[in-house]
From TrEMBL, chains A, B:
It comes from the Bacteria. This is Uncharacterized protein. Pfam families: ADH_Fe_C (PF25137), Fe-ADH (PF00465). Keywords: Oxidoreductase.
Amino acid sequence: MNNFIYNIPTKILFGQGQVRNLGKELLPYGNKVLFLYGKNSIKRSGLYDEVVKTLSENGISFVELSGVDPNPRIETVKRGADLCKEHGLEIVLAVGGGSTIDCAKGIALQAKYDGDVWKDFYEDQKYENLKDSLHVASVLTLAATGSEMNGNSVISKLDTNQKLAIGSDKLRPVVSVLDPTYTFTVSKYQTAAGTVDIMSHIFEQYFSPDKGAYLQSRMMESLLKTVIHFGPKAYENPEDYEARANLMWASSLGLNGLLSCGKKNTDWATHMIEHELSAKYDITHGVGLGILTPYWMEYVLSPENVHRFVDYGKAVWKIPGTDSMDIARKSIEMTREFFINLGIPERLREIDIDDSKFEEMAEGATCRGPLGIMKKLEKKDVLEILKMAL
Amino acid sequence: MNNFIYNIPTKILFGQGQVRNLGKELLPYGNKVLFLYGKNSIKRSGLYDEVVKTLSENGISFVELSGVDPNPRIETVKRGADLCKEHGLEIVLAVGGGSTIDCAKGIALQAKYDGDVWKDFYEDQKYENLKDSLHVASVLTLAATGSEMNGNSVISKLDTNQKLAIGSDKLRPVVSVLDPTYTFTVSKYQTAAGTVDIMSHIFEQYFSPDKGAYLQSRMMESLLKTVIHFGPKAYENPEDYEARANLMWASSLGLNGLLSCGKKNTDWATHMIEHELSAKYDITHGVGLGILTPYWMEYVLSPENVHRFVDYGKAVWKIPGTDSMDIARKSIEMTREFFINLGIPERLREIDIDDSKFEEMAEGATCRGPLGIMKKLEKKDVLEILKMAL
């Protein structure tokens, strides 16, 4: 097990009705809030009113910013930061899914930063400049990205077709409300995409050729089993509280840092390739991941790392037998079938993506160097995976 | 899944050499420390000097209090609190195992409390009085209790033969150093006892008749598998870093609150009975648990809760078959065998405990009402379990 720092101070208020406790939990951090959300669905569902109520009851004033996009834009970050500066706001409260929370982190950063956060952080990763930010809090309405409990933020810049990520402990939300009933209205399509996204986050941390971090691997298998058990249940019966609750808590635990603590290395190649896809085509992140993942698995599988697939196949899919390569291939096939059964397309062409930008995407994905750790992927490898997925 | 609050802000510095970062991590909380430890073994091992070095390098002054006992006494708590008041100390730094850390929490509480913490908290659980305490930090030298990451404290009062526990988020250490190499010198006996203690904490949370909290159950199984995999390795080869590291991190995750978040109820009967044993006979906690646990399992097993034992037997011990009661009984037998192979006695008589205080202990364990949730244990039930274990 490698040395690590574990530091996950986000306070989680989990369960039905917890939003009523949000206001008093925010008070230690300030009483002027930027209330950030996406579409008006939170008004229809009544969540908007519940948030306003808990803020008002605790004497917290707020300025609203709505219209955050699914792949949130740097322009929204700038607009939010300007509002925070103009009104002297202290907390950015995101009410929505991962996109809204990611956007809130960008805003919290830009509001306390004189330079351009896009250039200095998202492009150049100059974390040494990250001295201060506003506090971030969230009310989660979609189980997928884990942004409610981690310091990651992915922002897009459409004019340059870029989608870039940052990550810092300083950007972790101080408080997040996780109420599974808010995800009852999530569509089948987005439920499937969220399920894939949660699994993909775990895959990215699980699949590495090193054999250490036994405890972490077993925990990841337990989370994968949970998501595989409940994903189809939530897909079939959107108001299954137990399914929604397990998916929601798995999404947070899957990417809050706990699983990778002590691991020598993690992969993240599939995410880097998918970011190119959704930057170019504005597709749903989880759908891109669902298409790419089985092809990535097939491409990287080798005698040197087959043991990870064997662990995965046996623990998660209960595949019997002793032939390692056979178990590995079956585990990939079962992963693909699971995604297909959730309505995830099998190939890029099914979502109208052709090979015209493959070169550009392979170039973009590897412009900071080769990707991943299961197999180091150069531009040609990324191109090959995209072609397999076509 | 039940509603819950997740709030685990303890920062963990994990791995070899991390103690060198302790001083700077303490600075946000103060620069006057009570340096609390047990025996002089930390002087022989060099850990004492390392702690002094990191404190000195960061301008942190300290007052020492040594001689904390394995079942720490309320008298030590009082002495420590007096020292803190006298010298205006801000942080209680425990360097040792769970006993030392538990003692530090009592001290931190008493140092900021005008009344008698023994009476008001350990006896009467008046948590509404818990407004303030000093900060607690730790350097862990024994993987067992999880005290390094939770708000629990168990203290003994020898003149009345009492051993009582409290638990509050406010007593969680702010920083804990977990360096597996500090456990290389832990004896086989204490390694076995620690392994049992970690498993018992998970059992107490795992074994409940309700069928919810799927995710939590799978995570607990993953931790049990880890401890069962590495306990014997550490027992056989005390300097196996990977084994010591997995046990250490499992001990923290096993009782930091994560596993019980969302569970409807947990049991803790075995712990309550064992506290009576070690209060009366000053035995090692993990040894008492190791003797009692299989008998408790046999006593509580019923058609209503057999499904929990089936989950346990299949996931953790890979027991085949379809007869539930058969799988359950085999899982209990395998648990017993595992403990015996670690040198844990099978019966109380092997550690010179007879039935002379059984009545008194059964009375003491149930004086606040019946124990547990797998089966509600009255005084007569506790007596029966003690007799089975004789």
